[in-house]
Design brief:
The complex is a heterodimer of chains A (406) and B (571). Chain A has 406 residues and is of the alpha+beta class. Chain A is built from twelve helices and twelve strands. Chain B folds into two domains: 464 residues, Sodium/glucose cotransporter, CATH 1.20.1730.10; 57 residues, no CATH class. The chains are: A alpha+beta (406), B alpha+beta (571).
Chain lengths: 406, 571
């Protein structure tokens, strides 16, 4: 029993350690900015400059995500030491986002009237807080606007114990610096929107030639083999429905394969026996999520370079393999191939606009979603066919079928 | 045992595994038919694969050994190993699949949107994987030792090299087929000899195993002591000795040992008369305690130890890295659930057999308790009971099955551990890093197996379960069912619950725990470490309520809504 009695406090101590650790973890970012070393790194003035720059650089990343409660909370911890004030507050147009320092309770509701006044005037000012509590150190405050492209986004309020011109100057400068970060955040957002718009424009890019050729092939069957023509039309309908679907940036490999099947059925109607397809798909990777329509252009590319007009046959091999935490998909053809230099130009976007745009599009989207390590790998040579390899991680945050921006 | 049959059997299993792994996909899946190519893995096949990967050396050898040593209360092991899947089925299976996570660290990131928690979870996945690999390697060493007399490290090295080689070379391409094949191989290897042994037992007038008293030799038996051992005798024993007993050298002399403690030196040969009781290994006195760190404490506090075992196995299964990655193969959540239901049937069937070997071992091979190699009971029984060519062939079948157990579990674990290492531990990505990670994933337990105390295989696996139940189980259960979980809460729960269990397990395996209650508590940590993990996670989450990830509602909807509904619910 004595052993049990010693173990209960031990367990409680462990629990305490864990709680402390949690608080520590939460403050990790704040603790990192402590003084580095005492090695002589310049005059005191230079050191102060370095320190200020360092502190500012630590406060910048959270603000780059825009002005929200979460980012403001992170930023304000870095900004208050920069200003050296009693308390610091960040507010948007409607409410207080973050408060660092004492006095949050009784000042927080009062400050919003000041913020509303600032939203009208757009000018920074210094004012007396008029706090009734005798022991509250927050006697004077400076309010400065945070501006973005669309005018005033919010306000920075710095509290001090007395009126000081230094505080006014510092608060105004810091507010201006924060405004620059917020403008950068807006820039980031518009860049993301641009890329999304680009993807939307690119992904629905079924070649008009393909539609024309498919319909022509179907038309040729209407009299001779109406049943075949009907089936092809249904394939065509399914294929267009999948390709034109509006929601979701990602899909499952199984769905993508189904779309390729329909595509090849339509292409096969045109080429007949000259096109043969071999598949080797590990069933383990069928549920893998991957960018919508990222394989179909590769197959389209293989078909385009495959059966020459001379009537020679073409074999396309599509393989999907399980490689631990990744799936590896290869699309291979034994067609005419391409000179590596020309391919490089195509992927860099320097070639003629009509050809190879599918490959480049897929390459860009893969890099954008998974990073530069996951670009297309193309092995080819003139007359040597072409083999395109896509590597897709089985899991990546934010990538799931039907997910992504609508 | 006759190596002339057993070694070809083992070689055949190894070769078959490598060949199916490397060529299975090419043969079975090359087609020009999209319908065939895009058929997902069905619940039956996937369930056989999960079972094949799951039924390890602990199940194949360990349970029989423990039943031989300690009797029917050890049946909690097969019950626990199976019942873990019930918990998995009810609480975790479908949501985990719907999360889209491949490894458990992926799940941590998907649910909590936090890279640090992801890395921490990865750390535990790797730790549990290593703890689980250790007994597989030790079991392989023991098996090869019984088969050929090779030193213990040889078997571990064979399994380590084969597994690392095939996994690193990308030879496990059709892993589902390999593992499903391994399940049926293991079941056959255990079932066929069991039928013959049962027939032999009936032909022997069906003697009853007595668990109430010490096991006795049925006939005159010679026992060679491999490592020096201390035994305790409750009554005087007449035995013919060649070698050293209590520091006196004998040569084929018949001596009568008085009741009390005696020491048999390594290499001593003892010839027991029929009907003599098998001497019990001395637990508490002397320095041999660390070689059997767990059985002693179980005798002291059997009820506590049983609860510890039950809690660890029931809740630990969901955190096993090689089980979790197989959910990904199911096409959707409902299929994952059906898969686990089938796993319950397959695993349940399998676990009917090992206790049978344990009981027969108690009757026919009681001296294994003395030599400390009770895990070998399954392997030596055919030779003991049937003998001749038939016995050798059945023994070879069992040896092949045992090696299948090591290979399948070890390769599954190595894949899972190497996956986490490449993603979270090694800086850059690429195929070469996966190979490097494979080597690391196997090298650490291989090195450890050479220097840590040998624990009964089933007990050693139980320790891995305890760590999993105290760290990843709270993360999964609270992550799936509690919307107020925060990243700091999850991190602290992992560190406190899992860390405490891990420390206890390491202390036990290093043999530094003392005796009495503290030792029992450390050897069966789940009873206190699981509540500790849950409690820490809940309390710290409540204390850091403002850190609830912003996407919690969306991800929980995705975890709990069937896929078709979730897709339709989107605008």
């Amino acid at each position: 029993m004595t052993a049990l009695a010693t173990l209960v406090p031990a367990g409680l101590a462990l629990l305490g350690t864990g709680t402390a650790l949690g608080v520590l973890l939460g403050r990790l970012s704040a603790d990192r900015r402590g003084d580095r070393s005492d090695i002589d790194l310049g005059t005191p003035v230079e050191r102060a400059t370095f320190h200020t720059l360092h502190t500012a650089s630590l406060a910048a990343p959270p603000l780059r995500a825009g002005l929200t409660e979460d980012t403001a909370r992170h930023a304000v911890r870095g900004l208050r030491p920069l200003l050296g004030t009693e308390a610091l507050c960040l507010a948007d147009r409607t409410r207080v986002l973050a408060w660092d320092g004492p006095g949050a309770g009784h000042h927080e509701h009062r400050v919003m009237t000041r913020v509303h006044a600032l939203l009208d005037s757009g000018r920074s000012e210094s004012f007396r807080t008029g706090c009734e509590q005798p022991d509250c150190p927050l006697r004077w405050a400076v309010i400065a606007p945070l501006t973005g492209e669309e005018g005033v986004l919010g306000a920075l309020v710095a509290y001090g114990s007395r009126e000081s011109a230094v505080l006014v100057r510092a608060a105004t400068e810091v507010a201006r610096w924060v405004s620059v970060q917020l403008e950068l955040a807006e820039l980031d957002r518009s860049r993301t929107r641009l890329i999304e718009a680009e993807i939307r424009a690119l992904r629905a890019q079924i070649s008009p030639h393909f539609i024309y050729n498919s319909l022509a092939a179907i038309a040729s069957f209407v009299r001779t083999d109406p049943e075949q023509a009907r089936e092809l039309l249904l394939e065509f309908a399914d294929f267009t429905r999948y390709s034109f679907r509006r929601h979701g940036e990602f899909t499952q490999l199984a769905d993508e394969l189904r779309s390729i099947e329909q595509y090849l059925a339509l292409a096969g109607a045109r080429f007949g026996d000259r096109l043969s397809v071999t598949l080797q798909v590990a069933p383990e990777v069928l549920p893998v999520a991957l960018p919508f329509l990222c394989l179909q252009p590769l197959v389209e590319n293989a078909v385009k370079h495959g059966p020459g007009e001379a009537g020679s046959g073409c074999r396309i091999t599509i393989a999907a393999q399980d490689a631990g935490t990744e799936a590896v998909v290869t699309v291979e053809d034994d067609g005419v191939g391409m000179a590596p230099a020309r391919l490089r130009a195509l992927l860099a976007g320097a070639g003629p606009a009509s050809s190879g745009i599918g490959l480049r599009n897929v390459d860009e989207r893969l890099r954008q979603v998974y990073g530069d390590d996951y670009g297309l790998v193309v092995e080819t040579g003139v007359g040597a066919g072409m083999k395109v390899t896509v590597r897709v991680p089985k899991y990546r945050a934010g990538v799931h079928p039907g997910g992504g921006p609508d | 045992m006759n190596p002339a049959y057993a070694i070809p059997a083992v070689a055949l299993v190894v070769l078959g595994t490598v060949l199916i792994g490397a060529l299975g996909l090419r043969i079975s899946r090359t087609t020009s038919d999209f319908y065939v190519a895009s058929r997902t893995v069905g619940p039956g096949l996937n369930a056989a694969a999960i079972s094949g990967e799951y039924l390890s050396a602990a199940s194949f050898l360990g349970i029989a050994g423990l039943v031989l040593l300690q009797g029917p209360e050890m049946l909690w092991y097969p019950v626990g190993y199976t019942a873990g899947y019930v918990v998995l089925l009810v609480l975790v299976a479908a949501p985990l699949r719907r999360s889209g996570a491949y490894t458990l660290s992926d799940f941590a990131e998907a649910r909590l949107e936090s890279r640090p928690v992801r890395r921490l979870a990865g750390l535990f996945v790797v730790g549990i994987g290593w703890l689980y690999l250790l007994p597989q390697l030790q079991g392989a060493g023991l098996t090869l030792h019984i088969l050929t007399g090779a030193p213990d490290w040889a078997g571990a090295l064979v399994v380590g090299v084969v597994v690392t080689g095939t996994v690193a070379a990308g030879g496990m391409r059709s892993i589902t087929f390999v593992q499903a094949f391994q399940y049926w191989l293991k079941l056959t290897a255990l079932l066929v000899p069991a039928l013959f042994l049962a027939a032999a037992w009936l032909g022997d007038d069906a003697p009853r195993a007595r668990f109430g008293e010490p096991p006795a030799f049925r006939e005159q038996t010679a026992v060679r002591i491999a490592d020096s051992v201390r035994v305790r005798l409750d009554e005087p024993l007449r035995v013919t000795v060649t070698g050293r007993v209590d520091d006196r050298t004998h040569h084929r002399t018949e001596v009568t040992l008085a009741a009390g403690t005696h020491r048999f030196a390594a290499g001593t040969e003892l010839r027991f008369p029929a009907g003599a009781h098998v001497p019990e290994r001395a637990g508490r006195e002397g320095g041999s305690r660390w070689s059997q760190p767990l059985s002693g404490s179980r005798e002291e506090h059997p009820l506590y130890a049983t609860y510890g075992l039950v809690l660890a196995t029931f809740l630990g299964t969901m955190g096993l890295p090689h089980v979790a990655v197989r959910f990904y193969t199911s096409p959707h959540g409902a299929a994952a659930r059906r898969t686990i239901l089938t796993v319950l049937a397959l695993v349940g069937t399998f676990y009917l057999l090992p206790p049978l070997y344990g009981v027969l071992g108690r009757i026919y091979a009681p001296e294994l308790a003395l030599t400390g190699t009770a895990d070998a009971a399954v392997l030596v029984l055919p030779e003991r009971m049937i003998g001749g060519v038939a016995g050798d062939l059945l023994g070879a079948l069992l040896a092949g099955g045992a090696f299948a157990a090591f290979l399948s579990t070890a390769s599954g674990l190595t894949m899972a551990v190497a996956g986490v290492l490449t993603q979270d531990a090694l800086p850059a990505r690429g195929v070469r890093h996966f190979r490097l990670a494979t080597v690391a994933a196997m090298a650490v337990p291989l090195a450890a197996s050479a220097c840590v105390a040998s624990v009964p295989v089933a007990d050693a696996v139980g320790l891995a379960f305890a760590v999993s139940a105290s760290s990843l189980c709270p993360l999964l259960v609270l992550g799936i069912w509690w919307r107020r979980l925060t990243p700091p809460g999850a991190a602290c729960g992992l560190v406190v619950g899992g860390g405490a269990a891990l420390a206890a397990v390491l202390a036990t395996r290093a043999g530094i725990a003392g005796g009495g209650w503290p030792h029992t508590l450390l050897a069966w940590p789940a009873v206190w470490s699981v509540p500790l993990g849950f409690l820490t996670m809940v309390l710290v989450s409540l204390a850091t309520a403002h850190r609830v990830p912003p996407g919690t509602a969306a991800i929980l909807t995705r975890l709990h809504l069937p896929e078709e509904l979730a897709r339709e619910a989107r605008p």
